[in-house]
Amino acid sequence: MTTLLNSLRNPTEIPSSKAPYLLQLSSFILDPIAYLEAGFARSDVFWVYAPMRAIIAASPEAVRQVFAEPEETFGVVENFADSVRFIFGGDGSIAMASGEEYLRQRQMLLPAFRGERMKTCRELVCQVTRSLLDGKRKIVTEEVAREITVATILSFTFGSFEGERYQTIAREFMFQLGLIETPLKAIQLFNPFLQVFSGTYRKWLRSREIFFEEVAAEIRERRQAGVGDQGDILSILMQESETNQEIYCQVMTLLFAGREPTSYTLTWILYWVSTIPEVKDKLLAEIDSGEDFRSLPYLDAVIKEALRIYPPPYIFGPRKTKFPFKLLDWELEPNTVIYPSPYLIHHREEIYPEPEKFRPERFLERHFTPYEYIPFGGGHRSCIGMALALFELKLAIGTILSEYNVELADKRPVRAIRRGAVLGPEKFELLVEPR
After folding, report:
1. Whose CA is closest to 372, among 391, 390, 353?
2. Which of 220, 229, 237, 252 is nearest to 120 (CA)?
3. Cα–Cα distance measured from residue 72 to residue 69, given in angstroms and rounded to the nearest whole number
4. What is the model's pLDDT at position 1?
5. Who's near 357: CB < 8 A, 6+ residues apart?
């Protein structure tokens, strides 16, 4: 199929849809996967006009070319940056930085995701997981996954998730996330005209004000007490003399990045394990072997397959060319926006036979290149929290399946749906009992 598409490709023009802009925008909002797949049917590199005029890169070679470029090749996409500023409360987020400033911020934050700081999460994840399942007969899977991931990222960011202040921060963060994930409410938030009449917008501003007040109080108390490095993200940001505004934005960025993808992936894994008996049996046999959860190859393959079939970010944050840039056969002008698409890469049949089928064994049978498997991005902008996310998933799944029997309360298929800027599963329930 790919060979045929390449042979039909016009070397002078990147394919694009002829549909009106508003129709494309509504299609993207209502069903982003169907919208992307329609473009992919024309070519593995194609123009879209939603969420903005941009090129989707959906071939390994195109993605390799983008990832291989130095950070200085690409600049900030203003529409994207405006959305980031709105969500995170201003300038200062690593998600919005570019060039040397991005590399500086990345180097500053990376030590938090290594060594002893990671080990502190081990007991936390297992403890929180047990507390959410003990004594329960039925759970809403998404809610349990959310509580696990929020507790973990709060602890990683602030050193704790317990206490009134951290619970307030968590509550306001989850409230804001809930507004963004709901398409109708998100439209009211991001449309300047609708903001004037929107109670949703006023609630958003109040919630963000409370969030920042609590973070500011934490910073103030630590500085007054002369508290040094407590082994958390906030300590690093304070030691690096970041302004309070920059700290607010970085904290919000890390909470968003650490909650959504991990939570939805954990939910998907529990769905697949409860749906496919042979996967569950293999996984239980491995988990019951007594080996450390972190070193189990089939568990690792299950996590990778869940991230393959429904990567939470179906397209990555945009890259805007600063200079003329060659992408496959095409010469792109400066200021061209490119979105690599993990979802489309992960569903290329020549790389992943039967791509719609959940089959972890594919990750035990062969190695995939960094351009064929990209759930955490790649190049200079690979996800800074990848190691934490995988560590957390292994601990949570290992704890659940080693100590509890879980099965679907309703056997209906669960679909992938838009959850704000990412993909997530529909809500479903699990029946739970101790093993």
Report:
1. 353
2. 229
3. 8
4. 43
5. none
> Hey, what amino acid is at 230?
Q
Element spanning 56, H or E: strand 54-57
Q: What is the DSSP letter of 305?
A: H
Gyration radius of the chain over CA positions: 22
CA angle centred on 23, ends 18 and 25, rounded to 5°: 105
Q: What is the pLDDT of residue 81?
A: 74
Q: Which residues contact 418 (CB under 8 A, 6 or more apart)?
A: 29, 30, 31, 32, 183, 424
**Residue 330's beta-bridge partner residues?**
327
Which of 138, 150, 124 is closest to 274 using CA atoms? 138
Residue 11 confidence (pLDDT): 45
Task: Name the residue with tokens 């450390």.
Answer: 292
pLDDT in tens, 73-123: 888 888 777 777 888 877 878 888 878 888 888 888 887 787 666 777 788
- Please report how the helices 244-275 and 78-88 are oriented relative to each other, as an axis angle in degrees rounded to 10: 90
Strand bridging mode 54-57 / 337-340? parallel
Taking the C-alpha atoms of residue 208 and residue 244, their distance in angstroms, rounded to an integer, is: 14
Annotate 173-207 with DSSP letters as a single string.
HHHHHHHHHSHHHHHHHH-HHHHTT-HHHHHHHHH
What is 380-430 written as a DSSP string? GGS-TTHHHHHHHHHHHHHHHHHHEEEEESS-S---EEEETTEEEEPP-EE
Complete domains list, the chain, with CATH: 2-434 (1.10.630.10)
What's the rounded Cα separation, in Å, for the pair 81 and 95?
A: 8
Residue 301, classed as helix, strand or coil, is helix
DSSP one-letter code for 379: G
The residue ranges of the chain whose pLDDT is under 50 are: 1-11
Q: How many CB atoms sit inside 10 A of residue 94's CB?
A: 22
Q: How many other C-beta atoms can be found within 10 angstroms of the C-beta atom of residue 413?
A: 9
pLDDT the model gives residue 177: 86
Q: What's the token pair of residue 409?
A: 């309360």
Per DSSP, helices labelled H in 199-309 are 199-225, 233-239, 244-275, 277-287, 297-309
* Side chain identity at residue 335, one-letter code: N
